[in-house]
Amino acid sequence: MSTHTPVEPSNGQSNTSSAVLKRMLQVVITYLILAAILFISSGRLNWIWAWAYLGVGLVFVVINALILPPELIAERGQPGENVKRWDRVLATLGSLPWLGMPIVTGLDERLGWSPQLVPAIHLIGLTFFVLGQGLFSWAMASNKYFSTAVRIQMDRGHTVATAGPYRYARHPGYVGYIVSSFGMSLALGSLWAIIPAGLIVCLLVVRTALEDRTLQDELPGYKDYAQRVRYRLLPGIW
After folding, report:
1. pTM of the full predicted structure?
2. For residue 190, what is the domain's CATH number?
């Protein structure tokens, strides 16, 4: 009769599992905060378009949890060192319009600031939200270095992502986020929410420019990639 000693997980595996759990907790808490803001600011739970929006968002949360590699989820939950200082500033600034969007949409629903939109407009908004989130997920699945922070991930063997949507734009994840932000405002029937969505776009354009310059200066092979894929966000424009 043979026996064997169980293999203990390495520190690397343990750290990855811890970071994955941390990211899962972050996503769940963020989702619950978003839902709470929408329903508290609107003063009602029977808001069908909010439930539809949250339901679609939950589907993408589950899909991402199933298709993304643990190493990427871990990086998104707990980025490594050498995060750019300017990115920390932008992340702090970006939290304001991110919180502003559900607050504005909820108050708009309660106080009726925007004209009543026909169901088709809400559905168009949901469609754009789905397309934007789909592009965002595609970008993450195509780039195993898709972090929540701007840093050169030499600790993970950082290389240039060139597959999937990166064949058409250098920062497709931001395009998806922009589309889904505007989709959210229409899906929830708030024209006023376009204002914080526009602020998000402005901050993302700044972040794109700074991140792209960082990658060209510090990531081997990125300058050659930038010569092949000329546009940062919108092919033919910028």
Report:
1. 0.89
2. 1.20.120.1630
- Half-sphere exposure (Cβ direction) of 175: Cα atoms closer than 13 Å: 20
Residue 234 belongs to some domain of the structure: no
Distance CA 202, CA 110 (A): 28
Helix and strand counts by DSSP (H, E) for the chain: 8, 0
Q: Which domain holds residue 48?
A: 12-228
Residue 26 resides in a domain:
yes
Residue 236 lies in a domain: no
Kindly state the DSSP code that residue 112 receives in the 8-state scheme.
T
Q: Is residue 211, in this structure, part of any structural domain at all?
A: yes
What does the pLDDT average to over 137-152? 95
Q: What is the dihedral of CA 60, 147, 174, 228, to 10 degrees?
A: -120
Closest of 175, 148, 56, 135 to residue 94, by C-alpha: 148
Contact by Cβ (8 Å): 167, 229: yes
Q: Specify the pLDDT at position 18.
A: 87
Going by the DSSP 8-state scheme, the letter that residue 111 receives in this structure is H
Indicate the average pLDDT of the chain. Answer: 92
CB atoms within 10 A of CB 56: 18
**Domain tally, the chain:** 1
